[in-house]
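Batch queue: ligand-bound targets. Current item pairs a single chain with pyridoxal-5'-phosphate. No template structures supplied; prediction is de novo from sequence plus SMILES. Inputs echoed for audit trail.
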Amino acid sequence: MIFLGLASNYSARDIWRHSFILGGKKDYNALESALAERYGSDLEHTSLIYSGRSAICLALKSFIESGKIKKGDHVVINGFTCYAVVEAVKKAGLEPVFADLENPLDVNGKKGDILGANIIRPDYSAETLETILEKDKKAKVFILQNSFGLPVDISKFEKVKKGHNLLLIEDLAHCAGRKYQDGREIGTVGEATCLSFGKGKAIDTITGGAVILRDKEITFPSSFDKTKLVRRKPNGDVPRASWYPVFAVIARGLSHLHLEKYWLGLLLKLRWIERSADTKLQLDTTITWWQSRLALKQLKNLKNKPLREYYLVDDRKKCLSELHSHGYYLEELWYEVPVAPSRYYKKAHFPEAKCINAKIFSEHVVNLPTWYKSKRRIKEVKEAREIIKKQLMKV
Ligand SMILES: Cc1ncc(COP(=O)(O)O)c(C=O)c1O
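Prediction returned. Tokens below.
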């Protein structure tokens, strides 16, 4: 059986470690130092924080307080993303502007040409950014996401950035540990680097995040004092965060009997787990010591490898149900709507007519995990890929 949750690849040792790991203040400090060093900054400009969305919001507020941008300015974000990013931008008092995904056929063909569906990239292009900037004089920041861990062509973006004096946030939720084509690590180019340690991310401690300000002219807002952050209670508002991998093992076991839905429903009802998209945006709270210790271990072992594979299929519902009948549970995909999850989509006010490629992409995308190591699992992923490939959208 194959799942899209990263923990599905955990060995018994990983599960044990995640569930019972203990940490101390020194682990917290060590993680902060390691992040500052890796992403080219210092401790004064680096902070751990409650979640990835809190990190993005804090970076944006830092830009405002340092006088680089002002409230009401616009932030260009990917037209295929998580509501968390929209929430972070709005909470900072700024406006998100969605950039449509890159479709090489747009140059010669018709905009959003369905025939080009399988060559749509999961990020916007530097050309699209330039087009937005020509009309939108309030756009002062852009966020690059490198969806699925596939690097964008950073040199092109750097030219646009320089030409328009823009600020860049590299959002590492999908791409921690990955490199751009020119060999630089993602997260070492922009003015701020933000990480999420949420479920399914390259560093996964269920919740958590970090912000690294890389431009010394930018400092944290005066209202933010990283020495006074409240430490998330060991099992805080996600009461059993350390037990998630155990819960997942039980869910996978129950899936043989098609009972996993009831188990997960019960855990949600008990508030022992929380849906990833419901993670809170909190600027006064940080992660626990055990999370820091786990995150540091994972940071040191990051692989330069995409986080997920993706394909665009004709009829996603049909494809997922065929995969399901073969024991492949790939429903938790990125992303089923341009701003996921569906239950927050309306709130995002996504301009579908302007972002046709993102709409097509999100309606047809399926994901495959890239993390399985055993021969048996790799063979299973190959079989799943074969099923998907028979249903690809035609180019
Ligand atoms: C692209 C992207 N950026 C940022 C985040 C924010 O992460 P968090 O849930 O830790 O706030 C997410 C969450 O899924 C995401 O998908």
